[in-house]
What we know:
It is a single chain. By secondary structure, the chain is an all-alpha fold. The chain is built from two helices and no strands. It has a domain at about 1-40. It has helices at about 1-45, 45-145. The chain is elongated, with a radius of gyration of 45 Å. The model has no long low-confidence stretch (mean pLDDT about 75).
Amino acid sequence: MSEQLGKHKGAVETLLHEKKELSRLLQIVNSQLEKHLSALEEQGVDTEQFIQNIQQESQQAPQQQQQQTQQRQPQGRQSSQNNQRQGRKAQGSNQNKMNSRKKTAQNQQNSKGRRKKEKGKNQKHSKSRNKQEDKKDVEEYFEDEEEERDFNPL
């Protein structure tokens, strides 16, 4: 209950500040209007007629915009239907692309698995080959014990 009271009190306070700012802004706008209207009157312009013309134009502008949007709506509906059709086609092709990507990824994973298995087999064979070769190298090295070996790199 107290949360709601605080919420409403805060809202009222904020809105009163906004109202104060709005009235200050209106005072500034009115003073500027008066200055410009007096300058126009000094130039000989009928400001009453001028204001009426502007007000009529501002009232007619929304009506013209509504008419323009109403004229555009049938075209917009057709284009939106076309866009929907194209969207469906694109979704279908996107689905096909996704499916082919999934298949490609699966194939890649399968081939990686096969490669790992083959690599594991090859490594087992190569390890045993390497051990055998190492033994041969060691035997060959020590066969020639009769000869003196110079380990000095200089």
